[in-house]
Amino acid sequence: MEFALLSILALVVVASVVAAKFTDAGGNPYPFNKKDSVFSNVEASFLTLLERAVGDRFKVVSRVKLVDLIECKPGLSDKSRRAALIKAKNKQLDYVLVDKDTLKIMAAVDLVNNANKGGHKAQRDWFVSGALESAGIPHIRMKVKAGYKTAEVRSAILFKLGKNTRTPTRTRNRTEKPAVLSPSQAKAHSTQLAEI
C-alpha cells in the first residue's frame, strides 16, 4: 500500500516537472497577446497603394506561403519531391495578385528593403524566384520607398505582367492609361522603380 502511494506521488512530481518545461514561469501554456496590427506600417501602406493600383483587375492576398502557389511537377522521385517541399515550406510572399473573376494566380509581389530595416527582404531569395519562374508566376520585387504613386505601381506591375493582363470582356476608359507601356515609358518607369 505504501509503495503504491509513493509511486503515485512520484508520478505526480514527474508530471509536474514535465508540465513546467512546457509552460512559462507563470504556468500559462499559452503566453500570447494580440498584436496591434497584422501589418507593419510599411506593409499596410503598400497594401493600400497596391489595392488602389490594381484593385480594378486583381484581388490582393497578403502573406501567402510559397507552397500555396506551387506544386511539384509529376514524375519526381519521392526524395526529390520531399527535398523541394522542405525548401519551399517556410518561404512566404508579401502579396499575391489573383484575377478578380477567376481567382487565377497572376503574380507574386515582394517588398525589398536594401537597408534591411523593417524586416523586409534585403537579398533576393533565388529559390523563391526560381520556383516561381519554373511555375510560370511572375515575381515582382518592389523597393520600399516613400512617395510611390498609384499610377507608377500600376504601370510597373502591368509592364511586368505584359500580355497576361488583357481582359477582352472589359473596355478601357478613354482617360485610363494603356496596360502595356511603350519602350520609352518603360525605361522611364524602370529608373523610378527598383527591382521589378
TrEMBL record:
Keywords in alphabetical order: Signal
Residue ranges of the region described as Disordered: 164-196
Signal peptide extent: 1-19
Pfam families: DUF2726
Presence of keyword Signal: yes
The organism's place on the tree of life at top rank: Bacteria
Classification via InterPro entries: DUF2726
Domain DUF2726: 37-160
Polar residues bias locations: 182-196
Identification of the protein by name: DUF2726 domain-containing protein
